[in-house]
Amino acid sequence: MSLLTRLRAFKWPTIAYEVQRNLVSRARERRGELRATTALGATLDKPAKRVAYSRNAFEGFLEHGRLDPDAHTGLRVLELGPGEDLCVALRFLAAGAARVSCIDRFSFQIDPAWERDVYRLLLGDVGKDGRDRLADIVSPDGELRADGERLEVVRGAGIEDGAERLRDRSFDLIVSVAVLEHVYDLAAALRAMNALLAPGGLMVHQVDLRDHGMFTGGGRHPLEFLTIDERLYRLMTSHTGAPNRERICAYRELLADLGHEVSIEVTNVGGARENLAPYRERIAVGAEVDRALAASIERMRGRLAPRFAPLPVEELAATGIVVRSSKASTAA
Ligand SMILES: C[S@@+](CC[C@H](N)C(=O)[O-])C[C@H]1O[C@@H](n2cnc3c(N)ncnc32)[C@H](O)[C@@H]1O
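Above: query sequence and S-adenosylmethionine SMILES. Below: predicted holo structure tokens.
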């Protein structure tokens, strides 16, 4: 067991560690060294795993966005925070999307051989029509040619302030996986996406509401990170990309304020290793939330930071969601 894992079993040493990590990250950002920060303990996945992950993500967008797999022709898609590879974006192009743009707050220095392996394997996973559609973007040996026409990639800019760097200003579909929990200002990010969304456009976001190992890495309760006071939590995380702690109610309220029609499915409960199958629009104690988890949440309630303490136990138990949000077709 690493020293860091052992440290994460203790609340205050973990807080001190995160504060110093954040200060280092802030200093780097101020020096203009905007770099990729990877999730705790993360390394590059095996190429085949990455391709399988993107298949799962893409199929998740179709299923939970209730998208017709045959209706991609002409679609303009924006992917937020693709991370190390562009497999999800390429899958949309392979399915017939007209153009896909990607925007990511960080830049990544990736081993070109790894990248080629990923894209070569992806070509083997998208069928003949998909390969034909990708022919001018991915060579048979996996060389990627983001031409800026059908595939545009903007790096080093968050969605909140980087939207003007995108060539298209209007998208039919905006998607993300495991990104919205990392944005520093969720309201600003959703406003920026709403401005880019065409009337009648749709957003589908898969969001991980867990603590990303901050305390659970040391075996502590999945809600331990919600006990930290707002100002201290900012001091720990303002420049590291650690989770922003927004819960389901924030997504519902912010999107309703933008006039969207919103539906949210819960994908994960209590930080479980396995997601719910199927995802649920509602979860209940005694069903998806087992009674022991509910009791442990109630025992923590008195220690939760003020904005989390009044939330219903089911909302606190939900640790993963898919948000489907559609913009009205005409201005109200
Ligand atoms: C956990 S990674 C997920 C990457 C990829 N979507 C996946 O599922 O493997 C989060 C990604 O979101 C990006 N990100 C964080 N904040 C962002 C923002 N405000 N705008 C755009 N991208 C952002 C990060 O740089 C990172 O690439």
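Residues 174 and 203 are 5 Å apart (CA to CA).
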